[in-house]
Amino acid sequence: MKEERISRRRLLCGGLAAASLGHPFLRLNAQPATASRDPFTLGVASGVPRADGFVLWTRLAPEPLQGGGMGDAPVEVRWEVADDEGFRRVVAKGSAIATAELAHSVHVEVQGLSPGRPYWYRFTVGGARSPIGRTRTTPTEDDGTQQPLRFAFASCQQYEQGYYAAYRDMAAQPLDFVVHLGDYIYESSWGSRHVRRHEGGTPTQLPEFRNRYALYKTDPHLQAAHAAFPWLVTWDDHEVANDYTNDMSPRTSDPAQFLAIRAAAYQAWYEHMPVPASMRPRGADALIYGHHRFGRMLDVLLTDGRQYRSHHACLSGRSASPLADCADRLAPQRSFFGAQQEAWLARELAAPPARWTVLAQPTLLAEADRKRGPEHGYWMDGWDGYAAARARLLDALAAHKARGGNALVASGDVHAFWAADLRRGDAQQGPVVATEFVGGAITSEGPSAASVANMLAKNPQLRYGRADRRGYTLATLDARGCSIEFRVADDEKTADSPVSPMARFSVELGAPGVHAEST
To answer: Is 186 helix (H, G, I), strand (E, B) or coil?
Structure first.
């Protein structure tokens, strides 16, 4: 298969030209069809960047929606990394074996490269060659240049509810990396005004989860964003089951049965993400949280908010949706991250920091009394159901002022854009110890305008909120401050929708708190 190349003119016409480097490798012709024998229908991706390398990913799937179509035999996949997009200077190469056990996915852990620079990569199988991806290594800690870092974060991309215009726009940005905060797939069909549809019902078996990931990853704009930058990824609930906590799901009452579903879901997640072998699940368990450093400028503390958390408080039924309150939600033993991950996070926060710390976690951290009127009501699937754990986290940020004064919390899950001051102690009057930005949703439908207005009125720590638009968040960090931009599609129901800034904010280094800027 001839290597795919796309002219800059075609990129500009397609709305995918990058602001700086251009993207001649972006795959624009991916289709969710199954007739082709192209093994690279799901594109290419990179992730978990380090100063000397990164993880490269692809999955061989000539029939992506019918289990992949590769049969049972292992297949050799050759890979190359070059320091130029024309592959005149190949700096690393090798081969990996794609097996049926892992759905013929490969996770190549490249090492020995130079820090702080872009690289290009591709895969070859027989006579077929993949699209070209671009990635980059991180700066080293002794890098004295202190160049700004620019990254995007996103979540919640329900396939049926919209097209991925936001990813088309993201792929055109000059970014260093992307953080995905979860709900990469949705196991269930819900919402209104569907423009696409899931194939099959709610997955519970490994082949069904594989097909659901394949459906999402055939989207050309999602492929483009994966091919353009390295990603850091975590999960939330819809990768497995809505509102699950640890070994319990509102949909599946038997823990043993649910853990079998979780094992299948976790394996399918691994098979489709650019992550290292250390994140490969062992049954229903997988260690995916970790610390990722970008030179002296940034520490990203990537967390897992589902696998270890305490079960929901205050709810007698099987749903986590009703607003509730009770003494149990304040119980000190309740944990959002689990005891082991909490201890890890405390150690990381106590360690010598980079200039900025980003805590990447799945859902709104700020307290949010949601009930209308004078009564109090909280959403038990969010941090308000784990109030003591939140207090411990904010206390840890306050105890380590070098972290707390320069800490940003990047959040997802709630299908709305929020900007919040995170206060220790009293949520409305206590000292601000960090700043939170919730990055909206790529496509998933959000709460009503009345709900957002009520939350803003009852919770002054929420400085901005909006849920009527879909998109993602851009963040730029430098030695003086941080700028945040909420970017939204005019209409996520249209594949070629324009995407533009909706709101901008800034945070001063060492002085946490939201500062709104005009758009």
So the answer is: coil
Checking DSSP bridges between strand 149-154 and strand 177-180, what pairing results, if any? Answer: parallel
Distance CA 462, CA 464 (A): 6
Of 266-270, 321-325, 431-435, minimum mean pLDDT range: 321-325
**Pick from 190, 192, 193, 191: nearest CA to 201:** 190
Which has the minimum average pLDDT: 277-291, 346-360, 391-405?
A: 391-405
Cα distance between residue 487 and residue 169, in whole Å: 9
Contact 420, 462 (CB under 8 A): yes
Pairwise CA distance, residues 135 & 175, whole Å: 10
pTM, rounded to two decimals? 0.93
Q: Is the distance from CB of 237 to CB of 306 less than 8 angstroms?
A: yes
Tokens of 160: 């049926």
Q: How far apart are CA 75 and CA 100, in angstroms?
A: 9
What is the rounded average pLDDT of the residues 23-45? 62
Query: What is the token pair recorded at 301?
Result: 């503390």
Closest CA to 105 of 263, 213, 237, 259: 213
**Rounded to 5 degrees, what are φ and ψ at 231?**
-115, 145
Q: What secondary structure, in 3-state letters, does 303-335 show?
A: CCCCCCCCCCCCCCCCCCCCEECCHHHHCCCCC
The pLDDT value given to residue 36: 54
Would the pLDDT of 19 be above 60?
A: no
Sign of the dihedral defined by the CA atoms of residues 10, 16, 18, 22, in that order: negative
Instruction: Share the mean pLDDT of the chain.
Output: 92
| Whole-number pLDDT of residue 365 | 98
- Residue 285 gets which letter from DSSP? B
